[in-house]
Structure formats: C-alpha cells, structure tokens
C-alpha cells in the first residue's frame, strides 16, 4: 500500500462533536478586552505579591508579631491614611484579579450562553458587594464611636 503525498488530511476542530450548534459561541464584539484582561492578570498579580508580602511582614514579623494583632492593632494601623490606601488597593486588586480569573473559568467550562450569563452575573454582583463593603469598612472604621457605653470602648479611647 502506497500513500500519495499530495492527499490532504482533514482534522476536526477540538470539541466539534461535543457542543451542539445551538450553543455555539459568537466570536465577534470582544475586541481587545481579552488581551487587556490577560495583561491585567499579570500586572495585578505582580503588584499583589508586593502588597501581600509587605502586609504579612508588617503584621506578623514587626514588633510583637502575631501576638500583637488585635482590635487595637488594626485601629492604630487604619488611623494612618497610608495603611488605609494600602489595604484598599490590596482589596480592590485581589477582588478584581480573582473575579477575572473566575470569569475565565466560567467562559471555559460553561457551554450554554444562559448558564455563562447567570454565573457571571452572580460573580459580578458578589464582587461589587464585597468591594463596596470592604471600602466602607476601611474608610468608616471608628474604634472610638461617640456615645458608646464605657465598657464597650477600647482602652485607648478617651471617654
């Protein structure tokens, strides 16, 4: 048996037999979004490494270490605008980085458009809620609330 070298071999596209045509995805309209999302993951990941390891070093290694981390420690730390912004940037980048990663997983594994849309809607709503609540906590945190009972106020607050 001899095979001609001029014969064309046809190979089916991956997953071509598994996905029904009614679930076929449209390729239009994405533009540069996926490339920018890919780039964001690399940049935010590098920045998060610096933010997180500095956060861990300051909280766990400096001073009395982990034994000093309590309500007063956090209150003192968040009294400084530097640490408020530091923690805010860390929160926002971590949430956006994680949300983008889960979005990619949903796009990879959810076959139906309705399933993809539902899962991503839940993801985006949860991410926005966490970002908004976290931001509010960082900027509205008051260790010495006015009018609180004396037994509920921390030792460092003036009565």
UniProtKB/TrEMBL annotation:
Gene Ontology cellular component terms for the protein in this record: membrane
Organism the protein comes from: Arthrobacter sunyaminii
Gene Ontology MF term list: metal ion binding
Transmembrane regions: 39-62, 82-102, 122-141
Subcellular location field: Membrane
Protein name per its UniProtKB record: Succinate dehydrogenase hydrophobic membrane anchor subunit
Keyword list, A-Z: Heme, Iron, Membrane, Metal-binding, Transmembrane, Transmembrane helix
């Amino acid at each position: 048996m001899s095979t001609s070298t001029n014969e064309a071999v046809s190979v089916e596209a991956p997953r071509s037999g598994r996905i029904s045509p009614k679930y076929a995805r449209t390729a239009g309209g994405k533009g540069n979004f996926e490339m920018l999302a890919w780039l964001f993951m690399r940049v935010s990941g590098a920045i998060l490494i610096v933010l997180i390891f500095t956060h861990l070093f300051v909280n766990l290694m400096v001073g009395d270490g982990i034994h000093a981390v309590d309500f007063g420690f956090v209150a003192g730390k968040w009294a400084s605008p530097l640490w408020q912004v530091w923690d805010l940037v860390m929160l926002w980048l971590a949430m956006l980085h994680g949300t983008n990663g889960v979005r990619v997983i949903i796009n990879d594994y959810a076959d139906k458009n309705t399933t993809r849309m539902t899962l991503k809607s839940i993801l985006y709503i949860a991410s926005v809620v966490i970002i908004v609540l976290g931001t509010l906590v960082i900027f509205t945190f008051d260790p010495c609330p006015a009018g609180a009972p004396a037994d509920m106020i921390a030792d460092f607050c003036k009565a």
